[in-house]
Design brief:
Structural class of chain B: mainly beta
Shape of chain A: globular
Oligomer: heterodimer
Strand order of the largest sheet of chain B: 2-12-11-6-7-8
Number of helices of chain B: 0
Distance between the termini of chain A: 39 Å
Largest sheet of chain A: 7 strands, mixed
Strand content of chain A: over 45%
Number of strands of chain B: 12
Order of helices and strands of chain A: EEEEEEEEEEE
């Protein structure tokens, strides 16, 4: 069974940083692209970033480009999202996402339960 | 950016009746080389993450009941629930993965 377990959420001040992790299990992690999405309280879904199976290709939404960095450690079956220069509007539930393919231009076929990041002073 | 627009924003359907949700993209999401539409549908129940229902516009995900079906091509797509069940009360999203940023529709809330 595919499992995605996010961690690292919490309360952070505006301008601060946070690193999210996603521990993956139940599938061959190094053969699938992965990504992150988020959902602000009471709002819809927003795609944030994708990374290819090998980690050599990454994409970002304009809203986070230059502030967030996606990475993965295939030896640890773990996906990361480094978030810097956080803003109030980054407050959201952050989901780890597994793609159905090795490349990023693919549908997401599994989402984690999410980890809540609250940006507030 | 490709803008995804769903209609309606919400709908109320009786148990056992058909529910139809539309999704329009501002640009075509049909890849001419593969002849595939890069369009997926998700269901999100309250307090839960999204669940994939349909991908490539019309391919049902493994384990998804056959009352769910997807159709359409290019810029216009439809999700149909042929016989609404109580567990289908949720918000439904269309999603294009044709080009970055991979955008979602605003969601359609389905109620009984």
């Amino acid at each position: 069974e595919v499992q995605l377990l996010e961690s690292g959420g919490g309360l952070v001040q505006p301008g601060g940083s946070r690193r999210l992790s996603c521990a993956a299990s139940g599938f061959a992690f190094n053969t699938y692209a992965m990504g992150w999405g988020r959902q602000a309280p009471g709002k819809g879904l927003e795609w944030i970033s994708d990374i290819s199976d090998s980690g050599d290709t990454t994409y970002y939404a304009d809203s986070v480009k230059g502030r967030f960095t996606i990475s993965r450690d295939n030896s640890k079956n773990t996906l990361y999202l480094q978030m810097n220069s956080l803003r109030d509007e980054d407050t959201a539930l952050y989901f780890c996402a597994k793609k159905g393919c090795s490349r990023t231009r693919c549908y997401t076929n599994c989402w984690g339960q999410g980890t809540l990041v609250t940006v507030s002073s | 950016d490709i803008v995804m627009t769903q209609s309606p924003d919400s709908l109320a359907v009786s148990l056992g009746e058909r529910a139809t949700i539309n999704c329009k993209s501002s640009q075509s999401v049909l890849d001419s080389s593969s002849n595939k539409n890069f369009l997926a549908w998700y269901r999100q129940k309250p307090g839960q993450p999204p669940k994939l229902l349909i991908y490539w516009a019309s391919t049902r995900e493994y384990g998804v009941p056959d009352r769910f079906s997807g159709s359409g091509s290019g810029t216009y797509f439809t999700l149909t629930i042929s016989s609404l069940q109580a567990e289908d009360v949720a918000v439904y999203y269309c999603h294009q993965y044709y080009s970055t940023p991979h955008t979602f529709g605003q969601g359609t809330k389905v109620e009984i």
